[in-house]
Specification:
Distance between the termini: 53 Å
Largest sheet: none
Strand content: under 5%
Shape: globular
Number of helices: 26
Helix content: over 70%
Structural class: mainly alpha
Mean pLDDT: 79
Length: 637
């Protein structure tokens, strides 16, 4: 027992030492520079901030990782489930303390005051209430403290899921306070940074939880490690994509790699490569040996996990140093930007602005759909190539809309903004919904029998209830009308053009509402209200009238004012062209009319074609072989 305890303490000390060593080596140069400017704060503030950030990262991982692992890997009636929640609760308390320390230290750094100096208390209260950075730091502490209370009180899986989501939002305020929030000389990269932090938290926290609970799991270790391996793979993909996006936004140019910020970034990239190698070992070697030689492989897994956590701690130390190191685009004068031409059709097609979130979502959508098709084929089944081609075409169009020229110019042109929204609401769902991803999932993913939340259970908890609630087309149409009002008559219109979080909120809201409406029109079964052909066509007519009104308001934007405040309906982000204003009125209303007409006519054609084929087949025999049936995503499937 003593030997085991000594070994555990030595392993923990090694992991902690790797993180601190990486932080000291990476931050030493920048600390010397800060000491020259912050001549009154002292070493306690200069070094306290990155150390507190390291503790913040580790504690956040220790909260989010166990919560996610408890949902997806631990049966709710087992001891490991309760212990994982306890680990998350203790980590959340440490997270709140680290957040409070960052708040105090950040205030003294900004004010250039020594710790606990006379009169600093009243100024600090003003910092928390009147300054955005102070309010965000207080919000972080509030979220982590609430998560801690919930971790010690919740038991059901739905409550754990809510707690995990709440805890994940605690990463956002810190990102908004960092260099990632953007500025006059560098791009906004808050979404990639939050993605990066969340993925790292799931990966690191999940592995640490496995290591702590390996004896509690006993013979179930192999099954849990296999499930964790899937989470780790998705986390690695999110880490790589978001890290590249945030890094490119930070360094600006290749020359930026030679700066202190760039060197730390290169070191983090190398560490990520090592972690990818560890992940490959887990999937290709450890899982096989756990199945064949569980006792011996358990020891190998333990030491491999300790080594991997040591590398992860080094990455966390580098991340903490990177957060306190100004990117070169901020610390150096930005070069003058060459004036851009007024964009034309070719510009809209040839321009690119990679978006980490949508690259990740599109990649996962392609991978999971292809994996589901492969699994069905290996079982001797068949999946329609027509459905698959529609799905992949829809994902391709989604990728182009969220990463291409429309993504660039929607920040400056209301017509491009409207085109983006209408493609997300109308055109893309017409390709994604007929791909029947939920039906594919129901055929390829077997429900779990141990009470854990897998893919099938996650769909049953989230998407299927919403599809059932919006199965009647008029309900989905009412939701679509509400979404259009939010998109055009609230500050989200301006916010989505200027910030990454606003754009993601707009895009997700538009795509989700469009998919719900399209699914309600194209479902194959149902005898409830609104299921008849006439009801669906009438609903489409009402939606067409809705688009007509919104399009008319957009077409009249020079005269028609959008709300009671009598403000012009324009996006306030500055245009990067020489011309002070466009010489012609933007065709935003025409864009809405054209895309709405095309998508609604296509949906009506599908509804009529299906109705005709149903009538022709009478009782509906052999309907599964008919091409029109490939266009259906049902709320029941």
């Amino acid at each position: 027992m003593n030997k085991t305890r000594t070994t555990s303490v030595a392993a923990a000390a090694m992991i902690l030492g790797c993180g601190i060593l990486a932080l000291v080596v990476a931050y030493a140069t920048e600390a010397g520079k800060e000491a020259a400017f912050l001549d009154r704060t002292g070493a306690a503030v200069i070094w306290g901030l990155p150390v507190a950030k390291l503790v913040f990262n580790v504690a956040a991982a220790g909260t989010i990782g166990p919560l996610v692992l408890a949902l997806f890997a631990f049966p709710p009636k087992e001891k490991a489930y309760a212990k994982a929640l306890a680990v998350a609760g203790i980590s959340a308390v440490l997270w709140a303390a680290a957040g409070a320390a960052i708040s105090v230290l950040s205030f003294h750094s900004l004010a250039n005051l020594p710790l606990f100096s006379e009169g600093s208390g009243a100024i600090y209260v003003s910092f928390l209430t009147d300054v955005d950075a102070g309010r965000r730091s207080a919000l972080t502490v509030l979220i982590s403290a609430t998560a801690a209370l919930l971790c010690f009180g919740v038991q059901t899986q739905r409550a754990v899921a809510v707690t995990a989501v709440l805890a994940s939002t605690g990463l956002i305020p810190l990102a908004l306070n960092s260099h990632a929030a953007g500025g006059a000389t560098h791009a906004d990269s808050t979404v990639p940074v939050v993605m990066h932090m969340a993925a790292a938290a799931i990966w690191i926290g999940g592995l640490a939880t496995l290591l702590l609970l390996r004896r509690t799991l006993g013979t179930e270790l192999m099954a849990v490690v296999r499930r964790y391996s899937t989470l780790a793979l998705l986390s690695f993909l999110a880490l790589a994509i978001s890290g590249i996006a945030a890094g490119l936004a930070g360094i600006g140019t290749v020359e930026g790699l030679a700066t202190q910020y760039g060197l730390i970034l290169v070191a983090k990239t190398a560490v990520l490569g090592v972690l990818g190698w560890f992940g490959a070992l887990h999937r290709k070697w450890i899982l096989t040996r756990l199945e064949s030689f569980p006792a011996r492989a358990g020891t190998i897994f333990t030491w491999l996990a300790v080594a991997e956590l040591a590398v992860m701690a080094s990455a966390s130390g580098l991340a903490a140093a990177l957060a306190r190191t100004p990117p070169p685009a901020v610390s150096q004068a930005a070069p003058g930007q060459a004036p851009l031409r007024l964009p034309g059709f070719v510009d809209a097609l040839s321009s690119w602005k990679p978006d980490a979130l949508w690259i990740f979502l599109c990649a996962v959508a392609v991978f999971l759909y292809a994996a589901g098709m492969r699994r069905i084929r290996l079982r001797g089944g068949h999946w329609s190539p027509y459905r698959a081609s529609l799905w992949f075409a829809g994902v391709t169009l989604l990728f182009l809309v969220t990463n291409g020229g429309l993504r660039v110019y929607q920040e400056y042109l209301i017509s491009m903004h409207v085109t983006t929204q209408m493609l997300l609401i109308g055109a893309i769902p017409l390709l994604l919904v007929p791909g029947s991803p939920l039906k594919l999932a129901s055929l390829a993913v077997a429900p779990r029998q141990d009470g854990t939340v897998g893919g099938a259970e996650a769909l049953n908890m989230t998407l299927r209830p919403l599809l059932n609630a919006a199965s009647a087309p008029y309900i989905a149409a009412a939701g679509l009308a509400a979404v259009l009002s939010v998109l055009y008559y609230t500050p989200l219109l301006d916010y989505s053009s200027r910030t990454q979080f606003g754009y993601q909120a707009m895009a997700l809201l538009a795509l989700f509402s469009g998919c719900l409406f399209t699914a309600s029109l194209l479902r194959t079964t149902g005898t409830g209200p609104g299921s008849s052909r006439t009801a669906r066509l009438v609903t489409m007519g009402a939606v067409a009238a809705l688009y007509a009104v919104h399009g008319w308001a957009l077409a009249q934007q020079g005269d028609q004012l959008p709300d009671s405040r009598r403000q012009e309906w324009v996006i306030t982000a500055g245009q990067p062209w020489d011309q002070p204003a466009l010489a012609v009125v933007e065709p935003a209303g025409m864009a809405m009319w054209v895309i709405a007409a095309g998508t609604l006519l296509a949906a009506a054609a599908v509804v009529l074609l299906r109705s005709h084929r149903r009538s022709a087949t009478g009782s509906g025999k052999h309907i599964a072989r008919q091409p029109a049936q490939d266009l259906v995503l049902t709320s029941e499937s």
